[in-house]
């Protein structure tokens, strides 16, 4: 099974930027959908951004649209989340998740459903101060 490792979290002031990385233990772009989630402890995880069948197919939650960008580097088995114009309400633990494409019938409408994903990283903390 694929294993995921996130990195790149940290503390920044409002308006700053961070780039998160999600590196897989094996090539996964052709067989998996990859999604970034975030979670405040004690609350459910919410979908932030998803890479669909390719870099040209991406999805964003409304609260990050225009500020965050998901991208990938096939040679490094890594998906990135570039986060700009960060706000204090972006403070969360960020997780990347992956699921086999064959197990999700309609990624466009289902990408935010955390229960669909079987493979998760350990999370990386993002803290934005005002």
Short description:
This protein has 130 residues and is mainly beta. The protein is 3% helix and 47% strand.
Summary keywords:
about 130 residues, mainly beta, seven-stranded mixed beta sheet, four-stranded antiparallel beta sheet, 11 strands, about 5% helix
Kindly state the mean pLDDT as a whole number?
Answer: 95
Largest sheet: 7 strands, mixed
Strand content of the residues, in percent? Answer: over 45%
Number of strand segments: 11
Q: How many DSSP helices? A: 1
**Rg to the nearest angstrom?**
14 Å
Q: What order do the helices and strands follow? A: EEEEEEEEEHEE
**N-to-C CA distance:** 40 Å
Shape: globular
Low-confidence residue ranges: none
Helix-residue proportion? under 10%
Structural class: mainly beta
Oligomeric state as shown: single chain
Tell me about this structure.
The structure is a single chain. This protein is mainly beta and 130 residues long. It is 3% helix and 47% strand. It contains 1 helix and 11 strands. Strands 2, 4, 5, 6, 9, 10 and 11 form a 7-stranded mixed β-sheet that branches. It is globular.
List the helices and strands and how they pair.
Layout (H helix, E strand, L loop, with lengths): L3 E4 L2 E4 L4 E7 L7 E8 L6 E6 L6 E3 L7 E6 L4 E6 L8 E9 L6 H4 L8 E2 L3 E6 L1
Parallel strand pairs: 2-11
Antiparallel strand pairs: 1-3, 3-8, 4-5, 4-9, 5-6, 7-8, 9-10, 9-11
């Amino acid at each position: 099974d694929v294993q995921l490792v996130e990195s790149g979290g940290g503390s920044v002031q409002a308006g700053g930027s961070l780039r998160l990385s999600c590196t897989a233990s094996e090539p996964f772009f052709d067989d998996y959908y990859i999604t970034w989630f975030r979670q405040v402890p004690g609350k459910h995880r919410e979908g932030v951004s998803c890479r669909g069948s390719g870099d040209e197919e991406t999805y964003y939650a409304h609260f990050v649209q225009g500020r965050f960008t998901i991208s990938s580097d096939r040679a490094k088995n890594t998906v990135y989340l570039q986060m700009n114009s960060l706000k204090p309400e972006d403070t969360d633990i960020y997780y990347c998740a992956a699921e086999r494409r064959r197990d999700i019938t309609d990624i466009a409408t289902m990408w935010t459903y955390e229960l669909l994903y079987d493979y998760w990283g350990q999370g990386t903390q993002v803290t934005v101060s005002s």
